[in-house]
Design goal:
About 40% of the residues lie in helices and about 10% in strands. By secondary structure, it is of the alpha+beta class. A three-stranded antiparallel beta sheet has the order 1-3-2.
């Protein structure tokens, strides 16, 4: 059985890593980014536990925003060509921010 001395409470771990709040630690435990065990109702974290960062920093998703911008630009360019050829206006909004929630 694991000894309780090998574990820290969430508050002790918070102070050890220098967080100002316990909420990010609870969130990391909930999402599985921080190993933990329950002793009764108390969440305990191993003393040597390291919070993992699962953000994508390399690979095929780097530069995805630039790729999306180029795709939108290409669609707008095709709209312009279509409008000139047919002499009509398309219903797409020009100069809109593709990342806004409008």
């Amino acid at each position: 059985m694991d000894a309780v001395d090998d574990y820290l409470t969430v508050e002790q771990y918070r102070k050890k890593v220098g967080f100002s709040s316990r909420q990010p630690i609870y969130r990391a435990v909930r999402k599985g980014r921080l190993p933990s065990k329950r002793f009764g109702i108390t969440i305990m974290i191993p003393k040597n536990a390291v919070l993992t960062d699962n953000r994508i920093t390399t690979g095929k998703y780097i530069g995805i925003r630039q790729w999306v911008d180029r795709q939108i630009s290409n669609v707008e360019m095709l709209d312009d060509i279509y409008e000139k050829k047919k002499g009509i206006s398309t219903s797409r909004k020009k100069n809109r921010d593709p990342y806004s929630d409008e």
